[in-house]
Amino acid sequence: MRIEKVLNNNVVITLTDTKEEMVVMGRGIAFQRKVGDMIVIDKIEKTFVPEGNEAIENYSTLFREIKPEIIEIASDAINHAQTILKTKLSDNIYLTLTDHLNYAIKRTSEGIEIKNPLTWEIKKFYKIEYDIGLKTIESIKTKLGVLMSEDEAASVALHIVNAKQDGQEIGITVKMTEVVQDILTIVRLQFGIVFNEESFNYSRFVTHLQYFARRMLEHGDKSSNDDFLFEQVKIKYPKAFECSNKINNYLENKHHTLLSKDEQVYLAIHIQRVTSEKIK
């Protein structure tokens, strides 16, 4: 393989046997190298063929503009995620995560912090991905001296979750959507309301349901059971709790699973929030 384009010291473009442009990544793979030189095979860490000429241009623009250290941090996070999760991530994450980290580092350095409204859900339902996010922001602190918030760890985790690939992904997505729609219908009919789909509470409720449905379909429920909080929510939000019982019955009848007490508590709280804003 010969170098067709040098994007930076760690990324080059070459051609496949079928003359398609291919991204080749590796530490120092282009150091003191030029177009036409042979690629040192031992330095190759990752290769992939982006879909379409536009994708190649996006990679070319991105990797020319971004510091090599940021590309290395993103690549390390992706490689670590694939090792820990034992699954392949979409090649597109090399573009999306690197671009996100570059922007996040820049605005954090300028004192601009953006809260991630999904941090709570991500920490709760995607602990492994969130831990990878924490390691990533720790690496940013060590290598670049930029201190980032836990919200950024959650954003990294979300990129990893979205990039997961396996043969069951489409089937899980379809089933997950069905579960979410069924639960929304139960709540809507129980309270006789029309959801305000533009509201924050609705958005957070749907996100919670998506994470719950995916976790249920992929791994089963691993939540603990907090009896005290369960009883408190049952007393404080009786209508929302009653609705969560109906959802529990639906899950048992159709999906042969039951909510843990923890999950029923969180579900009842979300139902209380999303229905209270309509009642008001």
UniProtKB/TrEMBL annotation:
<dbReference type="InterPro" id="IPR004341">
    <property type="entry name" value="CAT_RNA-bd_dom"/>
</dbReference>
<dbReference type="InterPro" id="IPR011608">
    <property type="entry name" value="PRD"/>
</dbReference>
<dbReference type="InterPro" id="IPR036650">
    <property type="entry name" value="CAT_RNA-bd_dom_sf"/>
</dbReference>
<keyword id="KW-0677">Repeat</keyword>
<dbReference type="GO" id="GO:0003723">
    <property type="term" value="F:RNA binding"/>
</dbReference>
<protein>
    <submittedName>
        <fullName>Transcriptional antiterminator, BglG family</fullName>
    </submittedName>
</protein>
<dbReference type="InterPro" id="IPR036634">
    <property type="entry name" value="PRD_sf"/>
</dbReference>
<dbReference type="GO" id="GO:0006355">
    <property type="term" value="P:regulation of DNA-templated transcription"/>
</dbReference>
<dbReference type="Pfam" id="PF03123">
    <property type="entry name" value="CAT_RBD"/>
</dbReference>
<feature type="domain" description="PRD">
    <location>
        <begin position="65"/>
        <end position="170"/>
    </location>
</feature>
<feature type="domain" description="PRD">
    <location>
        <begin position="171"/>
        <end position="280"/>
    </location>
</feature>
<dbReference type="InterPro" id="IPR050661">
    <property type="entry name" value="BglG_antiterminators"/>
</dbReference>
<dbReference type="Pfam" id="PF00874">
    <property type="entry name" value="PRD"/>
</dbReference>
